[in-house]
Design brief:
This protein is an alpha+beta fold. It has helices at about 15-30, 80-100, 130-140, and strands at about 1-5, 10-15, 30, 40-45, 45-55, 55-60, 65-70, 105, 105-110, 120-125, 125, 150-155, 165-170, 175-180, 185-190, 190-195, 200. It starts with a strand and ends in a 5-residue tail after the last strand.
Length: about 210
């Protein structure tokens, strides 16, 4: 006998009812692993772009800004910055929808744009793209430009080269520029890696 759970109760279904529910599910849901790079999908109300598929995992970025941030942080180190905290908050939102086990930790390489490695690397479930990852995926991201500036996780330099302020930012035209970490308002566009075996919502192609 087929059944479904509703408010903690087991509801028995006829074969016809079960088949109708299955058809309805297949119309609206798709396995993340089946979405090719450059296409989009939804988790809850949030639309993401698939940047890359690998074994059991998909690198994705939010299609729109999550929110604007009045400043990057007290300095240009992403670790512990204001935008780092915003990404963590967004990660908690996504975990509530898909389950925390389906949001996979990744390494955020905080090497500065001039090559200094003072800031090291950190592990996060939700982060910003680094400038190097932006360069890697720029051809895909050019198809989804945002009419606003948005932060990367990459510092222009570090205090070792007398700079603790400038951060690499993406312009509405897609170029990478320097922005002041404390005085400039830019957008937060979170990046993460998801378990690609989950089911997500289809986005209707226009």
């Amino acid at each position: 006998m087929n059944y479904m759970m509703l408010n903690g109760k087991k509801i028995e279904l006829t074969a016809e009812q079960a088949e109708e529910i299955k058809r309805s599910f297949e119309k609206t849901q798709i396995k993340l692993a089946d979405i090719e790079a450059g296409k989009t999908f939804k988790v809850g109300d949030y639309e993401f772009i698939v940047l890359e598929q690998s074994e059991n995992a998909a690198a994705v970025i939010l299609k729109a800004l999550y929110r604007n941030s009045e400043f990057f942080g007290e300095n240009n180190n992403y670790d512990g910055s204001n935008v780092d905290a915003i990404c963590k908050d967004f990660g908690c939102e996504i975990e509530k929808i898909i389950g925390e086990e389906n949001l996979i930790k990744h390494t955020v390489n905080l090497t500065a744009d001039d090559g200094l490695k003072c800031y090291g690397s950190i592990e996060r479930k939700m982060s910003l793209l680094t400038a190097n990852l932006y360069r890697k995926y720029v051809d895909l991201l050019d198809e989804y430009k945002i009419d606003d500036w948005w932060w990367t996780a990459t510092a222009y330099s570090t205090p070792k080269h007398d700079n603790s302020s400038w951060v690499k930012c993406v312009s509405p035209r897609g170029g990478i520029h320097n922005s002041d970490s404390y005085d400039i308002i830019s957008g937060v566009r979170p990046f993460c890696i998801l378990n690609s075996n989950i089911f997500v919502s289809k986005v209707e192609e226009k």
